[in-house]
Design goal:
This protein is an all-alpha fold. The chain has helices at residues 6-9, 13-24, 27-53, 58-65, 76-97, 99-114, 122-151, 156-174, 178-188, 190-197, 202-230, 235-250, 255-276. Helix content is 80%, strand content 0%.
Length: 281
């Protein structure tokens, strides 16, 4: 029996392997794929939990998506669920807002790669960025668990509404702070950041991701804390706040941040006024 040569065994695999290798060598494609998979994973997990909590029917699912999900158990398993949901929320909300920054790095890296320069994969940058937000998720989990005993306090309902108003007022005023503006400038100008701090070492790119994550945290932390006012794990609020943060980061006008600040302040004052007049919110 004649044995097939290596060249004739699988003639179609050569171009396929070459195509995969070419795709994997393009930082932009890697960045887009990584962001898409992680963001989709976050939203899929949150929607899956919402579907499990919802009564039968579409209206039941919509009701669950518009309120906080019941994750109040303080057992180890309950804490793990809360933590996983905060992690999923950071993937779903924050990774898309970092898209312009990550793609800017990928485009610079792709240009450098064509010149034959050494580059580091964008997934290292993404890992550094997510380290910061996973740290925030741990903090938020601890804060939510710590507040759970207060939920059974007889006076909890009486302070919940003004506390929510204070969070909105704080978020509104924070929009005008120097810290917010400094962090926002870093988020809005990723090209300058990478141009001044470029490195071809993995540990250096990881640090750049951490620095970008810290700037993003400083820019968006007040809005993220609003989840405690809107109801932690409220899927609709996640989508709304995520969109607001993305619009602010990609805008070139300072007026956008001011409008957001005035809007949050107005919401806080409205809640306080309604509460003071005895309206149920």
């Amino acid at each position: 029996m004649t044995q097939l040569s290596a060249d004739t065994r699988s003639p179609s695999t050569g171009p396929w392997i070459a195509g995969v290798a070419a795709a994997l060598s393009r930082p932009r494609l890697i960045a887009i794929a990584c962001m898409a998979v992680l963001t989709a994973t976050g939203w899929a997990y949150l929607l899956l939990v919402a579907m499990q909590q919802a009564p039968a029917g579409t209206s039941g699912l919509l009701d669950v998506m518009c309120r906080a999900l019941p994750v109040g158990a303080t057992t180890a398993g309950g804490v793990a669920i809360i933590g996983s949901m905060w992690v999923a929320m950071t993937l779903a909300m924050m990774l898309p807002t970092a898209g312009p920054m990550i793609l800017t790095y990928a485009e610079i890296a792709e240009t450098a790669s064509r010149k034959g320069d050494r580059i580091v994969s964008p997934h290292v940058l993404i890992a550094g960025y997510l380290m910061v937000w996973f740290g925030f998720a741990a903090f938020a989990t601890a804060a939510q668990v710590a507040m759970m005993p207060l939920m059974v306090w007889p006076g909890a309902a009486a302070v919940a509404v003004p506390a929510s108003a204070v969070l909105f007022l704080a978020a509104g005023l924070y929009q005008f702070s120097e810290l917010k503006q400094a962090c926002l400038r870093v988020c809005q100008q990723p090209f300058s950041f990478f141009f001044l701090n470029w490195t071809d070492k993995p540990e250096g790119v990881l640090r750049l991701g951490v620095r970008q994550g810290l700037s993003c945290l400083g820019c968006c932390i007040a809005m993220m804390l609003l989840m405690f006012a809107a109801g932690a794990m409220n899927v609709v609020w996640m989508a709304v706040l995520g969109l607001v943060m993305l619009i602010e980061k990609i805008s070139v006008s300072a007026h956008v941040g001011r409008v957001i600040g005035f809007a949050f302040t107005a919401v806080g004052l409205t809640i306080l006024a309604a509460w003071g007049l005895g309206f149920v919110i």
